[in-house]
Amino acid sequence: MNSTLAGAAAAEAPRPVAPSDRIGSGNTLLMLVRRELWEHRALWIAPLVVAALMVFGAIVASVKYHLTRADMSRDDGPQGMTMFAVMQGAVSMPLSVVMLIVLVFYLLDCLYAERKDRSILFWKSLPVSDDLTVLSKLLVALVAVPLGVFALGLLLSLVFTGIWEVDAALGRVPAIPGWGMLAWLKAEIALLLCLMVGVLWYAPFAAYLLVVSAWARRNPFLWAVLPPVLAQIVEHVAFGTHFVGNFLRYRMFGIWGTLFSHMHVGRGRAFALSSALSQLKLQAALTDIDLWLGLAVAAALVFAAIRLRRYRDET
């Protein structure tokens, strides 16, 4: 009997984690990311709808409106290149705005909703840790959706270029001066680098919204907005200063002044987006101490969100 108990104890003893088990956690994280995209379809449907509307508007505009021969004769190379560069840069603007709006509401809702509808009880019954669950939501907000929107913007840029070339072949608009695949690739790489820096810079905001989503019992949007607003009001009334407001404005836009500090767009000169790649101060942005301090704060906030999800309930 003792030998039987000893054998059972040996069988139940913890075994070393095999490499295949470590890979399994990566597969679990991937499945959790896919689950977020399945459950929150607005993350990818909203950018697709905006892109479809932009393409439809470009097609309608190319059919209804076009330059006259006199307008085309007055257009020179530098001005035409500037106009096309501005158009290419503006392609990603509506997608970026929609992405930011959707991600803010996603981060505020992702941990709050599962407590509100009690689906957290089901997810906690599965062999999935709180760490992986919270990290999957952060990866969706900081990696999956931004990269997906960037890829969509890249495709949209090609579609707009194709529409322009068709109109140029039909004589409706002048041909794109100086356009080439290499210049276009450099422009897209510059946009991708800007996206990467932006993700790192705004990581503390994403982590803060996760903490609010894990903590708030109701109205997470109000709880996210109320503390910074009240802090600015109290500071102004009590001390007559604006340190909180200045700090928030810096955390919103400060990195872009560093990244584009030597960007020159001369008046009357052609400005090609391909030149933006060489003018980006990427090293200065990535070595900015405030960026790394923000990432440290983001890590602490993510840890807080994990702990809150582990112990927070609605009972």
Structure notes:
There is one protein chain. The protein has helices at about 1-10, 20-40, 40-65, 70-75, 75-115, 120-125, 130-170, 180-200, 205-215, 220-240, 245-260, 275-280, 280-285, 290-310. It has one domain (about 30-310). α2 crosses α7 (about 130-170) and α9 packs across α10 (about 220-240). It is globular, with a radius of gyration of 25 Å. By secondary structure, the protein is mostly helical.
What is this structure, in a nutshell?
The chain is mainly α. It contains 14 helices and no strands. It has one domain (31-311).
What is the helical fraction, as a range of percent? over 70%
Please tell me how large the radius of gyration is. Answer: 25 Å
User: Which residues form runs of ≥5 with pLDDT under 50?
Assistant: 1-23, 68-79, 265-272
**What class would the helix/strand composition place it in?**
mainly alpha
- Large-scale geometry: globular
| Count of spatially separate domains | 1
Largest sheet: none
- Give the helix tally: 14
Average per-residue pLDDT, rounded, comes to 79
Strand content of the residues, in percent? under 5%
What is the helix/strand order?
Answer: HHHHHHHHHHHHHH
> For the terminal residues, how far apart are their CA atoms?
46 Å
Give the tally of β-strands.
Answer: 0
